[in-house]
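Entry 14. Two folds queued back to back today. First construct below, sequence then structure tokens.
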Amino acid sequence: MEVSAHMVKDLREKTGAGMMDCKKALAETGGDFQKALDYLRQKGLATAAKRAGRVASEGRVGSYIHAGGKIGVMVEVNCETDFVAKTDDFQAFAKDVAMHIAASNPSYIRREEVTAEVLEREKEIYRAQARDAKKPEKVIDKIVEGKLEKFYGESCLLEQPFVKDPDLTIQELLNGLIGKLGEKIEIRRFTRYQVGEGMAKS
């Protein structure tokens, strides 16, 4: 069954989930509205969207030291109550995210943080690569768009495949936790240290 824009709109209004998530849910369930609703609930997306407007001022700082003390990460994960912050699930998530950052070295948390200047520079590089490869002008914009999505997937923490389960992105892992614990949870900031990073080696 073909997924129409109207079906996606109805599902968005019902759940508050993102357009692409609703489209994927309908595609995965053959256009069955109720099954798509269940699919989103299982993924935690409906819950995550509904709780997005709440204030998450509690939380924990997760940390991870890797590679014999050569890489260290601290990440702040926020939630609504100290009760949730003390749960094993929440603390395990904070530690997993810190470990993931150590391994995957993201530059941003979400794509909205990428500056217009960085985006324009990336686009120019991709356009030049496409022209060097003698790609027709009419398909260059589509190629650039595809490469930008790949850039987001590699550079933005929430869009990276989780190192312990590459079938899940960090966003999907987070949505699952929100669905399980029933609170708004967000990754606020992180710092990653690597011994010798940025120093010129003699």
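Second construct, same run, same settings:
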Amino acid sequence: MSQGEPRLEPLRSEPIKERVIRELSRQIEEGTFQPGEQLPNERSMSEQLKVSRGTVREALQFLQTLGLVEIRHGVGTFVRSSGDSRPLRTEWRQWTARHADQVHDMLEVRKGLESFAAELAAKRATETDLAALDKAFAHMEAAFQDRDLIAMVQADVAFHRALIAGAHNEALLELANTMGEQLLPERGATWDLPERPEKSIAEHRAIRDAIRSRRGELARWHVIAHLESVEQDIAGSIAPDNRSTSSRLLSTA
């Protein structure tokens, strides 16, 4: 590691990739790495974080999809400028249109997993869990007020991760987080739809309030209603020339 290069804290517990993502996100959000700045290379990060280079690579790919970094092959990884969202928005929309049937199938699974997680969270969530849910929702509202699309997507991911963590079921956590990661481009495309942010804010507030009031069945219902609303809006946004390849998703519109 070169002299003066920011230090990253070693990671000591599972799940490793989630810890790497959280640590790098924290460093970026706190300004340790500034927009446009190059991150340390994979070898340096793997040594500092005490994880494999493959784990670092997977974490960086996730952060790129989320819009926090840009991987320039053969050059390095750079913190993305907050104002540079147009290429990412186009990529999110195109990915969602190309994978419409996959989006439909995975949203169906998310409805089952996350509605169950919400019901469990209403029973099991600690005050720390609820505080994490509140924090993610507050970030979502702030990002909406700033019309910051990337920040809205980041807050959405944080909210659903906090919801699932509140269920205190490790198997459910692993399954749901994997599904959520695979649908990151769809989440970006969803938040970019006209009037969708207003809907999502209201729907997430209802989910948060139901969990906070310990009403498990209501929390389950609000999660299902939210994801069905997302599916309908995504289906309605797909251009006619893509509809022949997206029959299952479009059947919900």
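Quick look at the second one. Residues 85-237 form a domain with the Four Helix Bundle (Hemerythrin (Met), subunit A) fold (CATH 1.20.120.530). The first strand starts at residue 69 and ends at 72.
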